[in-house]
Amino acid sequence: MRWRGIMDQFKYISPKTKEETLKILKEKRVNACIVAGCTNVLPDIKIKKISPKILVDITAIQELRGIDKKKDKICIGPLTTIAELINSELILKESKILIQAAEEFADPLVRNNATIGGNLVTASPAADMAVPLLTLDAFIKIESAREKREVKLKEFFLGPGKTVLQDDEMIVGIEFEPSDINKKGYFIKLGQRKAMAIAIASVAVNLEVKQNKISQIRVAAGSVAPIPIRLTGVEKFLANKAISNKLVEKAVNRVREEVEPISDIRASEEYRRYISGTLFKRAFNKLTN
């Protein structure tokens, strides 16, 4: 079937407000599919990964866009593009690690269209923005016509392509606290090529050091487990320890033990396990040197 024939099976709605969108989701539930940048949705439609649905285009809803500081939170709208993250002075000041990840995201054309919310709801193990948001200890604001709730990002992913979102729910915000540890992070990614590379492995580290001792650390990894993960075992091992070469080498081994990679066309399980430790070491050394 040609592309136009495929798209003819889908209906299209463009609500102008969040409330209108939630009403549509309440009525249509599993038959509705929210779209915005469409950098993932259109390819999925083309390969028939998504069955005919009502496409609910939320691009026009301005309240779901933007980056702001409200009280004690950095707030990012789910329709904020990857390019907008890169150009944000607030993100540069409060969480440079997000910009590092955004700059590694696909190419400029895709960055201008892809949204941070879309990158999260696809629940890909290789989702570039999920990894640094995990080390920022971010949480997701979710709404439906029934209720509002907040979920820690580390509890948001259930499996490849699966999240805690119900059929009538949508992401309305991503938030994290402005703090010293969130200012001090590093993201590193390995792909098969520079542009448009899906990560073979990626690692994010946020670190706070006092008098050569690790006072706080958060470590996350992508493409090395069924979902983007926090390496809490590594974090507990490193907490309150004095930094030394021996400690770093032990932590590298802990990283390789904690990840749960698979083999696919991009890399073997063994290589992913090895390189995840190497990426952690590079990120940690970057922050401590």
Order of helices and strands: HEHEHEEEHHHHHHEEEEEHEEEEHHH
CATH architecture of the largest domain: 2-Layer Sandwich
**Average pLDDT metric:** 92
Write out the strand line-up for the largest beta sheet, numbering strands in chain order.
4-5-10-6-7
Number of helices: 13
Number of domains: 3
Q: Indicate the CATH topology of the largest domain.
A: Uridine Diphospho-n-acetylenolpyruvylglucosamine Reductase, domain 3
Low-confidence stretches: none
Would you kindly provide a brief summary of this structure?
The chain is α+β, with helices and mostly antiparallel strands and 289 residues long.
Task: Using brief descriptors, characterize the structure shown.
single chain, 289 residues, alpha+beta, Uridine Diphospho-n-acetylenolpyruvylglucosamine Reductase, domain 2, Uridine Diphospho-n-acetylenolpyruvylglucosamine Reductase, domain 3, 3 domains, five-stranded antiparallel beta sheet, four-stranded antiparallel beta sheet, 13 helices, 36% helix, globular
Write up this protein:
- It is a single chain.
- The protein has 3 domains: 3-57, Uridine Diphospho-n-acetylenolpyruvylglucosamine Reductase, domain 2 (2-Layer Sandwich), CATH 3.30.43.10; 62-176, 2-Layer Sandwich (Uridine Diphospho-n-acetylenolpyruvylglucosamine Reductase, domain 3); 183-288, 2-Layer Sandwich (Enolase-like, domain 1), CATH 3.30.390.
- It has 13 helices and 14 strands.
- It has helices at residues 3-7, 18-28, 41-46, 82-86, 89-94, 96-103, 108-113, 116-121, 130-135, 180-183, 232-238, 245-258, 269-288; strands at 11-13, 32-35, 54-57, 67-70, 73-76, 139-143, 148-152, 157-159, 162-163, 170-176, 185-190, 201-210, 213-222, 229-230.
- α11 runs antiparallel to α12 and α12 runs antiparallel to α13 (269-288).
- It is globular.
- The model has no long low-confidence stretch (mean pLDDT 92).
